[in-house]
Design a protein that fits this description.
single chain; 349 residues; alpha+beta; Lipocalin; 9-stranded antiparallel sheet; 8-stranded mixed sheet; 30% strand
Length: 349
Amino acid sequence: MPTLNQISIETKTITKWGGIILGTLFMLFILFKLGVFIKDTFYPTPPPPPTVGYDILNPIEFPDQEEKNFVYTLNTVTGKFPDFSDRAKIFKIAKAEPDLLALRKAKDKMYEAGFFQNPILIGQNVYKWTSDKPFPKAISYNILTLDFNLTSSFLSNENAASGKSFPLEETTITDVASSFFSNLNSFPEEEINLDRTIVNLFSIKNSVLIPATSISNAQAARVYFFQSNEDEKPIFYSNPKTSPINTLITGGDNQPQISEASYFYQKITNESETYPIKTAEQAFEELKEGRGYIASYPQNLTEISIKDVYVGYYIGDKKQNYLMPIIIFEGDNGFFAYVSAVTDEWINI
């Protein structure tokens, strides 16, 4: 039988070697973590390449424009170009599906909107409705894509031209506009960035719309709705200050009237692939070479100071298959220019 002294010696030995083993394991753990840190810091594992699942893409169809001879200087807050990710998502845009009941559904919508007459076919899937009250109106409506354009002779109507019943608050104006689109089932509210809504006020003088300085002397208002960001990036149109989802509100006999409206909407799906994109420096060189689209610019100025550069998405004036990324150059005096972001080897130039 071991004595008490022997037990004490063995216990101390076990404790000693246990401490050494634990200390060694702890040191090995620290060294492993340090090695991982050094590797990730100085020798990071490169990310997998972009998926490029749609293969070669067609170029963005920017509107035609005359050549502009601007001289650009970079004047960002940091004085440098921003660092972008090396890739961006490209989203597939949904296509309209055939619907045997499309015309009947359209007739029901138009009836609710005050167009009671039978329509006439004016193009492929496009029908035209007219109404005489409270003043002549006409709406051209694509029964499959649901896009439409509404016009009227409001300028010749005394109540509209005088601003009778015109809303006196901007929130009421936007509510009237959104309700009009909602009544036509053409307002995807969850896909609209209401905080970005623009309201332009007008007075009516000699049958002409003139920008108004305040709502108190306005007789009309045009409301522009913009689609929500995708992948935390803003969506831009051919004109950065307008949108193809808009309406003109005027006065009327007893209530405000929708006197003009346009709805051109492209639904963005969740399906996407990643593609390599240009750096800000590369896009800037293309802009200087005249390879960008000048979306908005100040008159009588040739020297442009660029104050911000960022990545966004572009929706054009024609139906497109994909939501394509662009690099936006924003300058003073309302200057905006777009450069296609996807690197050239993936564009069918």
